[in-house]
Design a protein that fits this description.
single chain, 431 residues, mainly beta, Methylamine Dehydrogenase, Chain H, Immunoglobulin-like, 2 domains, five-stranded mixed sheet, four-stranded antiparallel sheet, 2 helices, 7% helix
């Protein structure tokens, strides 16, 4: 009888390497698998606005022709409660709380702007018409915001920016200096300062920025992009009075521009595909931001808007809006909406449990790891996106580990951390 001597530690290490390679192949084939389609296939309208107040409770509105739809959910989009409206166009949505939200748009029947004040999760609806009887006239309302001190602003056709001090019960004119421009977006930065954008017609001609410094009572035009600059604005987002972004097109190409001096100068930060558009954009904090675009486009920045990357496309339809009910170090939940009833959800839950010896795989943007690593000696295997092992170290501590990570070139890596006592941890790391 012949006996063989096996090096079990060596075999375990080889099996571990094999599992890493398999994990890498799986991961590379599923990098965008986190986006889940939540669309209700009975909804055919284009969904223009989406808001979630937490990971479960959300609202969508949209339109197609003279048919409009309102969608609500209490279970994260698994099921939608749907209400259809004829003779109306829904363009925008804003939410005060679970029981009260506002929808703005156009009434085909009355040929004027309309605001729906929705109560009891949309069960009770009050319609307010902007037809110059009880409220100032506007041919349509494009944007609704809830501002500081519980004030609200609307903007729309006929040079209209209106404000309300009683949560939309009554509305008053502000002074814009124009009765012909179409206002499509508005944002209040603080109690005094805000910006709005306007143009001569709705379709690809929004090329002016207005500013208020008196709490929205008067607005002054501060920017006009002429034909030589050839920029058209779909939306704006300002982090403060000085720093802001334009999301739209330049030279008929999808573009993001940034100002850091209150709209005096604009710098091109992203230029993408010809004959495509970037629709909306937001900054979550001082570093991270997202934008939406045509043909499933999602754009992301992690460096305060100085550079933007196109994520893997999530749909064949245009993406009109995105929201972030939860976005922190441990849980990231995003919702997006688009044409032909598209509603999508992204969820990334980072599981860190110091009591468990095995922690599930996560996606890490930065140096955030289990606290357990501070107290143990461990081994690491680092591989590149092709599955090639580039670093293998045994018996290191967390200080050594950080030194190794900071020495890596910029890129995407797969890391396995393990010790001799059964601790095992997989992660993807973006340097």
């Amino acid at each position: 009888m012949k006996f063989y001597h096996y090096n079990f530690r060596y075999l375990n290490l080889q099996l571990l390497k094999l599992s890493i390679i398999l994990l890498q192949v799986f991961s590379m084939n599923n990098l965008k698998a986190e986006w889940i389609d939540l669309s209700d296939k009975t909804v055919l309208e284009n969904i223009y606005s989406i808001k979630f107040i937490n990971a479960d409770t959300g609202f969508c509105v949209g339109s197609s022709g003279s048919s409009a739809v309102m969608m609500t959910t209490t279970n994260g989009g698994k099921q939608w409660m749907i209400k259809n409206f004829q003779g109306k166009m829904f363009i925008d949505l804003n939410v005060k709380n679970k029981d009260t939200f506002f929808i703005s748009g156009y009434s085909f029947d009355r040929r004027c702007g309309i605001l729906l004040r929705c109560f009891d999760f949309g069960e009770n609806i009050e319609e307010i018409y902007f037809n110059d009887t009880l409220n100032p006239f506007s041919f349509g309302i494009n944007k609704t915001i809830i501002s500081y001190n519980n004030r609200m602003f609307l903007c729309g056709f006929s040079g209209a920016i209106f404000y309300s001090h009683d949560f939309g019960k009554s509305w008053m004119h502000t002074y814009t200096g124009t009765s012909t421009k179409i206002f499509t977006d508005i944002q209040m930065i603080n109690d005094n300062v805000g910006y709005a954008v306007a143009g001569d017609s709705f379709l690809h001609s929004i090329n002016q920025i207005y500013k208020t410094i008196d709490s929205g009572m008067t607005w002054e035009k501060v920017v006009t992009f002429d034909s030589s600059f050839n920029v058209y604005i779909n939306s704006i987002y300002f982090m403060n009075e000085g720093t802001g972004f334009i999301f739209g097109t330049k030279d008929t190409t999808e573009a993001i521009l940034m100002t850091e001096d209150s709209c005096i100068n604009w710098e091109l930060k992203y230029l993408g595909n010809k004959n495509m558009f970037i629709n909306k954009g937001y900054m979550l904090d001082s570093l991270i931001g997202f934008a939406t675009g045509d043909i499933g486009g999602i754009f992301k920045t992690g460096d305060a808007g100085n550079s933007w990357l196109l994520e893997p496309r999530i749909s064949s339809e245009d993406i009109n809006d995105i929201c972030f009910p939860i976005y922190n170090d441990t849980v990231k939940v995003l919702y997006a909406c688009g044409n032909k009833g598209n509603v999508l959800k992204y969820i990334d839950i980072v599981g860190i449990n110091d009591e468990n010896e095995r922690v599930h795989e996560e996606f890490v943007l930065g140096l955030k790891f289990p606290k357990k690593l501070n107290n143990i000696i461990f081994n690491i295997i680092i591989s590149n996106i092709l599955g090639e092992t580039i670093i293998e170290k045994n018996k290191i501590d967390f200080y050594n580990f950080q030194e190794i990570l900071t020495s890596l070139k910029a890129g995407f890596y797969f890391i396995t951390i393990y010790d001799d006592n059964g601790f095992y941890y997989n992660l993807k790391f973006l340097r």
